[in-house]
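User: My notes are a mess, but here's the protein and pyridoxal-5'-phosphate's SMILES. Can you give me a structure?
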Amino acid sequence: MVLSRQDGNGGGLVATMLTMSTMTGPDFGARTTAILDHLDQSRQLKSLQMIEGPMGPSITLREHGEVACFCSNNYLGLANDPQVVEAGIEGLRRYGAGTASVRFICGTFACHETLEARIAALHDQEASYTFTSCWNANEAIFPTLCEPGDLLLSDALNHASIIDGVRLAAVIKKGLHKGVYPHNDLVALRAKLEAARANPDITGQIWVVTDGVFSMEGDIADLPGLRAVCNDFDAKLIVDDSHGTGVMGKTGRGTHEHWGMAGSEIDLFTSTLGKALGGGAGGYMAGSREMIDLMIQRGRPTLFSNALPSTVACSADKAIELLMNEPERVARLRRNVEVAREGIRAVGFEVLESSTAICPIIVHDTAKAIAMSQRLLELGVFVIGFGFPVVPEGEARLRVQISAAHEESHLEALISGLTELKKEFS
Ligand SMILES: Cc1ncc(COP(=O)(O)O)c(C=O)c1O
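Assistant: No problem, the inputs look usable. Here's the predicted complex:
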């Protein structure tokens, strides 16, 4: 109305009305409802289960009561370990709720320094730096450490945080090259590196980035192979070992230890504190002193966002101390993984092979995976079903995750639930 008075003629009114409709834009509510309806109809809609107590091998779910939990990343059972909890409470008492500042202004507590020294030692690296999540760490490293003329090559099955971190880096650092190599395919990677070294536009550092343990397949990166290929082309190797830290290798140092490699053979690690190492939240990078120094100077997520809360830093520090001093936790996890994998196979399900604590049972059809997961819950066993688009079409699965905290009774509940499923869904 107001606009038509400004114009004063009919043609102008139509034009103004058109402009008005453009200015008002599409109906966000209707668009969002359509998206949610589509997810619902295609059975992709997620619902949040409410947990009414601490994370452990058994948990209490609202509406379902106590169930055996096989879908948490609480690999070492430290999420509710009394010492880990107490360390967090002590941190809260000593440092208060937080720094109310970013790290470089007045946001670094002594507990950050202690934790970062422990993480560096865990990974056999010169230094480390923490973030509020590993997602945040992956979002920080590429735009900060890479420069125009560099090339970043990423495994096709890398975690979403690596994919988005690389995308962000290419936007922030114009002239940074990026590419993807087929999953764990060293021949294809070598070919890409050969091409890169012959490309006059690639004038800087080459980086190869991989998950240590791939979260959907539960398989692992061939780190010795990757190291050798990287050496041949003077490329730096970055490993996100979020599902490997605390899990892989005799002492739980990670996927490199599984392969008999020293941590120092990897140029840069990222990992999470939100899985095996206490399960609260937080992530980190661990690498050379110069990488960490550059992050402190230039990393946007650390220059412009608050530090890891002191409670989490203190809990994580205790969790790593326990991991380093009590290797029997890792040994128990390994035993549980073997028992679970054997049991799943004995029931007659197809489980993707590896020695990780992630046991994907392939059932192919998305609707079937979801129905099976719901039925298992009725049977008192909590396992998540993943379908398209989280995994490729036709590769829907139940993802069973094993913890050192699982007792025989939990593993028996899992196998008896799966035995029932085998009868009902064959
Ligand atoms: C390989 C990998 N990287 C990063 C993350 C993100 O970790 P965070 O929860 O600390 O952000 C995950 C979590 O699922 C992961 O599996």
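The first helix runs from residue 2 to 7.
User: Great, I'll file this with my notes.
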